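Q: Please design a sequence for this.
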């Protein structure tokens, strides 16, 4: 991926910034559920001979995980350390000595080669003194550096139009120690950078007893390594084979390490203004010193309190974030701007850490889901006249549609339930939903009542609802039915005053719970309410309970 190119995996977004540490080094910004975390890794805010300085992201992170390699140390100016470096090399050559520079294969080796090649070009008296870099990995890295010159700083990009700066005139590759003719002054850059083993260790043990020679430690060294130990200039060192060797050569520590110092780190934090900082990649003592220094620096900023952590390896840090979950309305639901108080009905879809509200019909456009329909069927034994069922359904639903289905006589009620007549049975069909299931239950109850006692059903149409035994239960169920039909905000239940009010589009219908009369200025709403009362009464009333028509 390219710098600043955003990727998303399972709702986690991430993109990278140039870190300036080595060619291709990147800092990553990660966003999870709206919380942003910047992980610097190794980074440098100082431009050197070939690399740009690390970028300062234009997005404020909530959490900053940052290296603390140098703690509170401050690097010397680049010009000063380059002058010290070249002078040390020149002095060593002038007295007939060899100069060993332990380096890592990537990054600092290329930086030092640029400095030495330029210095040799400016000093003709040194042209007979060979410079070697002895690392097979460094040689492979050179091919990468020669290829990706456009990823380096402006100075290198300008120079490439004239000649490739990584094709060195005065430096050659040393494949192995057998090719090395140690017959006079020379400069050798060899890995590893901390003298643990390999060619750099072998040359060091050969050259350290000679006072004319020098070792330049040019990068960071970990405690316990030979490179760190010789910086204190002991009288003797122990060879890999266990021999005691006198340390008479000169030892210079000139840091070209591409890690931030205290000034770079604190300025980076000041510009980003994170609320939480996690210090990593450093010795515990350096981390603690850096933590204390940062706390002192930001202790007066009460408006933006700063939490700083310096965890040990495998130590868990728990941070709590409060955030509002917001759902975006998309599709046809977003075609009209809602007003305060409007109710938006749709399907809440969570994708990664984002929420959207879509209409069920558009699910397939915004998700991998599609809308399905459950077709329910119920078959019951029925021998009563189909005309009697038709008559009772008219009383229950108000309107019954006669249709034909697969060559059979059928009735459709509530525009939802299809009743198919068959020999000695009927089949109820409907699309499953809360409302349609309630309609189907009412029709099924009526069919079972007719089948149980068709004669009693014929006589039941002239009795009164007012004779319902448990009127409070009936009233509660009527209230629930009306809420299902018109919505909770449209129905007002006053059990003490014995009425229910339904308001639909500004038109009011009042139901008396004493006489079940419905008063309404609009006939269509009045008929809807009367039909609902009838349906509920038929569904709940036992066969032997008389009913009469509602007025």
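A: Design:
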């Amino acid at each position: 991926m390219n710098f600043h190119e955003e990727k998303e995996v399972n709702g986690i977004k991430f993109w990278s910034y140039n870190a300036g540490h080595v060619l291709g080094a990147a800092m990553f910004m990660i966003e999870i559920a709206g919380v942003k975390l910047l992980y610097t890794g190794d980074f440098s805010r100082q431009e050197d001979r070939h690399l740009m300085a690390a970028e300062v992201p234009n997005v404020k992170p909530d959490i900053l995980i940052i290296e603390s390699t140098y703690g509170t140390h401050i690097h010397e100016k680049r010009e000063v350390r380059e002058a010290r470096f070249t002078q040390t090399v020149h002095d060593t050559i002038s007295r007939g000595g060899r100069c060993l520079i332990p380096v890592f294969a990537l990054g600092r080796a290329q930086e030092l080669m640029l400095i030495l090649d330029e210095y040799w070009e400016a000093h003709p008296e040194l042209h007979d003194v060979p410079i070697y870099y002895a690392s097979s990995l460094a040689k492979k890295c050179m091919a990468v550096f020669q290829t990706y010159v456009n990823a380096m700083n402006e100075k290198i990009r300008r120079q490439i139009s004239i000649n490739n700066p990584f094709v060195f005139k005065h430096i050659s590759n040393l494949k192995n120690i057998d090719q090395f003719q140690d017959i006079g002054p020379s400069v050798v850059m060899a890995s590893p950078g901390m003298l643990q083993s390999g060619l750099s260790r072998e040359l060091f043990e050969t050259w350290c007893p000679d006072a004319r020679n020098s070792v330049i430690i040019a990068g960071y060294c970990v405690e316990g390594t030979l490179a760190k130990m010789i910086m204190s200039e002991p009288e003797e060192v122990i060879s890999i084979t266990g021999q005691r060797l006198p340390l008479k050569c000169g030892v210079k520590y000139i840091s070209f390490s591409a890690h931030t110092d205290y000034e770079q780190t604190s300025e980076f934090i000041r510009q980003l203004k994170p609320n939480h900082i996690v210090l990593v990649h450093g010795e515990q003592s350096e981390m603690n010193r850096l933590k204390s220094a940062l706390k002192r620096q930001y202790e007066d900023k009460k408006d933006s309190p700063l939490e700083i952590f310096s965890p040990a390896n495998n130590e868990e840090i728990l941070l709590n974030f409060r955030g509002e979950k917001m759902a975006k309305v998309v599709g046809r639901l977003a075609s009209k701007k809602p007003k305060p108080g409007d109710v938006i009905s749709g399907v809440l879809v969570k994708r990664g850490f984002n929420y959207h509200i879509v209409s069920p019909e558009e699910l397939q456009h915004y998700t991998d889901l599609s809308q399905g329909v459950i077709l329910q069927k119920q078959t019951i034994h029925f021998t009563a006249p189909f005309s009697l069922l038709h008559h009772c359904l008219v009383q229950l639903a108000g309107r019954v549609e006669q249709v034909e289905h697969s060559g059979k006589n059928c009735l459709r009620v509530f525009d939802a339930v299809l009743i198919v007549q068959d020999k000695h049975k009927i089949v109820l069909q409907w699309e499953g939903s809360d409302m349609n299931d309630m309609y189907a239950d009412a029709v099924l109850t009526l069919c079972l009542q007719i089948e149980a006692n068709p004669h009693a059903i014929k006589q039941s149409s002239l009795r009164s609802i007012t004779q319902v035994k448990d009127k409070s239960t009936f009233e509660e169920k009527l209230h629930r039915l009306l809420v299902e039909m018109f919505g909770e905000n449209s129905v007002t239940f006053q059990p003490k005053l014995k009425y229910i009010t339904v308001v639909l589009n500004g038109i009011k219908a009042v139901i008396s719970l004493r006489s079940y009369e419905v008063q309404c200025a609009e006939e269509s709403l009045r008929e809807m309410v009367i039909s609902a009362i009838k349906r509920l009464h038929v569904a709940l009333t036992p066969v032997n309970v008389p009913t009469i028509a509602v007025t």
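Q: Thanks. Anything notable?
A: Confidence is low (pLDDT under 50) at residues 543-551. The two ends are 75 Å apart (CA to CA).
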